[in-house]
């Protein structure tokens, strides 16, 4: 046990002697007898790092309960991990003790001292001595846990390695790699970022969706391992430094679990899940990276590069099959070209069909069939070809070229010509004007049509243009738009202005009429007061006509009683007043002032209603 | 005096014609005849060269572009043939012969157009310039109608004509928008051009574009264009593998000089 060991006796010697004498008959071994309450406070280590912890164990002998006052210290956290008590009865000798355990976690490196603190136990107060220890910086920095197993830090909790990278490679060469992430057995881990390539000049093939998991023993320690099979491909020549990154969240157990109770030292309780459940872990996000490796990427040699080479690098095999073997002229034959092996299949393109006027070939489509990864398998192309001549006896040889990085040279594979039987096209009849091809299928007919059409070359040059321009880039387009828009805008403005002007004129006329009617009513009032029947009725008629003429848009003098009766309702006051005025004019009706005022009031109301 | 002036003018014209003849300057029709003779004799390369000379010297003409396309098609240079046909159609969208040759060349190279829905077929009747012209015509007619109505109010014709013209304009604008992107495309003129993941030569290819494929350039980085190739996806292809459909006489002249 590393650390300080403190013990002290607080009972007077006479009492101790008395106790000893009392216990002596019952005890065969007084060497372990508890003479009183004693205290020991120990640290399991005087040096630990950030991220680790120390255990403070306080043992009080001779008491079954204690009250501990842990002091508060800056940058130190004391996690109480419980109290255990022990009672022993040996040969009639009884002893008891309690042990309290604390896990100390430091937030900052440096030298620390736990000052003496008091413990009340068994009715006495005990004081510990000061405890000193040092905290060093983290020995496992979150994102520096790097290296292949050979370079692994002995205290590393997790690291990532990549196997298979070579020092030199050719552009386009597929390099299979195995990426492994190692986690210490007792550490829970969750992959947050799958392996990614750091560095230019390479691409990493898509990873398997389900990485493999296992356990590996490395340097005497057991690690949980997650591994991915993939491949990297250089895409640019030169010297490149590459590394693989993996992101993870580690569930680090707080070190030095209290070991006072042996029950909890069992493996079951050391499990991550158990720790996690009881909050004995802390999560740490880490980004692990392999040691950068320098790879020299060599460009594919220009010398000896075959004409049809399309960038395929690897080791391939090439076969061709044709179906059917016997056709009539113009009938399609399906060529199935299979390129199998290991390499960069994304650069494997369809082998060209030789240009020959006796053959017509169509574009091909290809499908890749993987053997478990992106660089092993076969790529199958299908191309339709049509024999245009019955004299043909074989499908010509096809060629596929690739670069073999193992041999460091180009390899060209030629297939054997496939025998073929081409019969005359009976349906072609007399259509043998275009030897040697005698197409019979619609495609052939189209071809003839095409040739015929293309013979229809223009004999006149037509109109010449300086350039092909869209309409919206021509001035006249915008000019026309502008003229039309300007015209429409001018019309709208003019129309609005006219409406506004008319509206103003109408309102002015209305106001003038209102004023005339008001003035007329005042005059009528004066006339009625003077008892002048003649002027009164004349004024009434004039006001009624003025008012209605404005609405009916006719001359005031043209309005007669008949018009009023026709256009207004029969009980209208205006009709009655107009009628009374007519009776005065033609029937000699005479009204006194009172009646004239009553009639004037009626007229005022009627005119107001009408307006 | 007047007769003397006329005589001098005629003399000047005759001298110019003589000078032009002496200097070997040929008219476009003479050049066209020469190119057509080459074409008829199966000298397609020479015919193409003369057609290009005409285009570089006198300007772009749908007929000459059509002949040039035919010359390329006869040489199995399908990318160039499709490019010239498309250029011709930009100038003469209604040229059925040109359109038929384009379709046949595309079929020969295995290029196909994705099946079009009703909207694409409807708005594909006319090209962008035609839709724009239709919209402009509708707008002009609408203006004329409104002006006439202002000076002498129209009744039935006005209330029938205005909505019809507005519908025509809306359709035309929509059609022009639909055709806008199609109009400014480029054609892959190199056989088996690879659509690359990144803009450098050794980048991984994603697809192979057949000669004559129409693509739309969306970005440029150095000597590479980032293009949308429709069903083949998007990626980078070398600028040298592409030719824009929009072109000018000057470009032909420059290319001819460089050649």
Walk me through the structure.
The complex is a heterodimer of chains A (611) and B (259). With 611 residues, chain A is of the alpha+beta class. Chain A folds into four domains: 13-136, Immunoglobulin-like, CATH 2.60.40; 149-296, Sandwich (Immunoglobulin-like); 315-428, Immunoglobulin-like; 499-610, no CATH class. Helices cover 24% and strands 36% of the residues of chain A. Chain A has helices at 13-23, 272-277, 442-455, 475-530, 533-552, 561-567, 573-587, 593-610, and strands at residues 38-43, 47-49, 54-61, 66-68, 76-90, 93-106, 110-114, 118-121, 124-127, 131-136, 158-163, 168-170, 175-184, 188-198, 202-204, 212-218, 221-234, 238-253, 281-289, 293-298, 314-323, 326-328, 332-343, 359-361, 365-370, 376-387, 394-395, 399-404, 409-414, 418-419, 421-423. In chain A, strands 11, 13, 15, 16 and 17 form a five-stranded antiparallel beta sheet that branches. In chain A, a hairpin with a 4-residue loop joins β28 and β29 (409-414). In chain A, α4 packs antiparallel against α5, α4 packs antiparallel against α8 (593-610) and α5 (533-552) packs parallel to α8. The longest helix of chain A has 56 residues, at 475-530. By secondary structure, chain B is α+β, with helices and mostly antiparallel strands. Chain B folds into three domains: 2-112, Tetratricopeptide repeat domain (Serine Threonine Protein Phosphatase 5, Tetratricopeptide repeat, Alpha Horseshoe); 118-183; 186-244, SH3 Domains (SH3 type barrels). In chain B, 61% of the residues lie in helices and 13% in strands. Chain B contains ten helices and seven strands. In chain B, the strands form two sheets. Chain B has a five-stranded antiparallel beta sheet. Chain B has a two-stranded antiparallel sheet with strand order 2-3. In chain B, β4 and β5 (224-228) form a beta hairpin. Chain B is flat, with a radius of gyration of 24 Å. The interface between A and B is large, with 47 and 64 residues.
């Amino acid at each position: 046990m590393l650390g300080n060991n403190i013990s002290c006796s607080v009972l007077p010697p006479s009492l101790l002697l008395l106790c000893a004498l009392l216990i002596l008959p019952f005890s065969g071994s007084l060497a372990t007898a508890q003479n009183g309450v004693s205290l020991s406070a120990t640290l399991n280590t005087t040096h630990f790092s950030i991220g680790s912890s120390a255990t403070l164990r306080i043992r009080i002998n001779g008491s079954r309960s204690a009250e501990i006052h842990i002091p508060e210290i800056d940058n130190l956290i004391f996690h109480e991990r419980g109290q255990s008590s022990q009672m022993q009865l040996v040969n009639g000798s009884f002893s008891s003790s309690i042990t309290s355990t604390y896990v100390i976690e430091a937030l900052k490196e440096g030298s620390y001292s736990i000052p003496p603190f008091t413990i009340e136990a068994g009715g006495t107060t005990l004081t510990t001595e000061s405890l000193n220890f040092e905290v060093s910086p983290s020995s496992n920095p979150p994102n520096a846990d790097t290296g292949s197993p050979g370079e692994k830090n002995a205290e590393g909790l997790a690291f990532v390695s990549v196997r298979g990278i070579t020092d030199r490679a050719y552009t386009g060469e597929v390099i299979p790699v195995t990426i492994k992430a190692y986690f210490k057995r007792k550490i829970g881990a969750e992959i947050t970022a799958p392996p990614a390539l750091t560095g230019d000049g390479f691409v990493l093939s898509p990873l398997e969706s389900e990485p493999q998991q296992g356990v590996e023993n490395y340097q005497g320690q057991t690690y949980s391992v997650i591994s991915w099979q993939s491949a990297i491909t250089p895409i640019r020549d030169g010297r490149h430094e590459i590394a693989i990154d993996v992101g993870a969240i580690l569930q680090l157990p707080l070190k030095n679990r209290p070991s006072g109770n042996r029950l909890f030292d069992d493996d079951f309780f050391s499990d991550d899940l158990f720790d996690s459940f009881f909050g004995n872990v802390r999560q740490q996000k880490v980004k692990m990276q392999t040691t950068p490796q320098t790879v020299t990427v060599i460009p594919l040699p220009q010398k000896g590069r075959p004409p049809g080479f399309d960038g395929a690098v690897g080791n391939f095999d090439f076969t061709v099959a044709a179906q059917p073997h016997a056709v009539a002229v113009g009938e399609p034959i399906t060529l199935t070209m299979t390129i199998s092996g290991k390499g960069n299949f994304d650069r494997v393109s369809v082998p060209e069909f030789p240009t020959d006027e006796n053959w017509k070939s169509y574009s091909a489509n290809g499908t890749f069939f993987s053997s478990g990864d992106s660089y092993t398998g076969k790529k199958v192309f299908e191309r339709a070809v049509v024999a245009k001549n019955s004299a043909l006896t074989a499908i010509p040889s096809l060629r596929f070229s690739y670069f073999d990085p193992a041999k460091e040279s180009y390899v060209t594979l030629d297939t054997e010509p496939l025998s073929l039987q081409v019969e005359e096209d009976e349906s072609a009849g007399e259509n043998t004007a275009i030897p040697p091809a005698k197409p019979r299928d619609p495609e052939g007919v189209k071809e003839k049509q095409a040739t015929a059409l293309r013979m229809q070359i223009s004999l006149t040059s037509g109109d010449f243009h300086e350039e092909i321009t869209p309409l919206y880039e021509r001035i006249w387009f915008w000019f026309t738009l502008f003229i039309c828009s300007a015209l429409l805008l001018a019309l709208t403005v003019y129309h609005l202005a006219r409406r506004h002007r008319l509206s103003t004129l109408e309102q002015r006329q209305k106001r003038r009429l209102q004023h005339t009617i008001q003035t007329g009513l005042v005059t009528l009032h004066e006339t009625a007061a003077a008892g002048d029947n003649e002027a009164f009725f004349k004024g009434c008629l004039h006001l009624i006509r003025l008012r209605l003429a404005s609405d009916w848009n006719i001359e005031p003098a043209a309005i007669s009683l008949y018009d009023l009766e026709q256009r207004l309702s029969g009980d209208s006051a205006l009709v009655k007043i107009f009628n009374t005025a007519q009776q005065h004019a033609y029937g000699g009706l005479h009204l006194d002032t009172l009646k004239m005022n009553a009639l004037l009031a009626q007229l005022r109301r009627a005119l107001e209603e009408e307006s | 005096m007047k007769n003397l002036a006329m005589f001098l003018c005629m003399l000047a014209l005759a001298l110019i014609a003589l000078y032009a003849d002496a200097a070997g300057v040929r008219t476009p029709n003479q050049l066209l005849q020469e190119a057509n003779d080459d074409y008829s004799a199966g000298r397609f390369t020479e015919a193409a060269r003369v057609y290009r000379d005409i285009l570089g010297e006198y300007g772009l003409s749908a007929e000459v572009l059509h002949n040039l396309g035919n010359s390329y098609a006869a040489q199995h240079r399908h990318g160039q043939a499709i490019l010239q046909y498309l250029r011709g159609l930009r100038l003469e969208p209604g040229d059925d012969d040109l359109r038929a040759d384009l379709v046949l060349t595309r079929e020969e190279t295995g290029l196909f157009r994705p099946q079009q829905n009703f909207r694409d077929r409807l708005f594909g009747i006319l090209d962008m310039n035609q839709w724009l012209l239709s919209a402009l015509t509708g707008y002009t007619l609408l203006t004329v109608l409104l002006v006439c109505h202002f000076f002498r109010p129209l009744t039935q014709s006005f209330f029938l004509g205005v909505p019809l013209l507005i519908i025509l304009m809306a359709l035309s604008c929509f059609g022009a928008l639909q055709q806008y992107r199609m109009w400014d495309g480029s054609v892959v003129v190199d056989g088996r051009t690879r659509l690359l993941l990144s803009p450098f030569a050794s980048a991984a290819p994603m697809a192979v574009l057949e000669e004559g494929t129409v693509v739309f350039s969306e970005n440029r980085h150095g000597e590479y264009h980032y293009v949308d190739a429709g069903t083949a996806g998007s990626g980078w292809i070398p600028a040298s593998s592409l030719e824009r459909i929009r072109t000018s006489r000057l470009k032909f002249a420059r290319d001819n000089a460089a050649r």
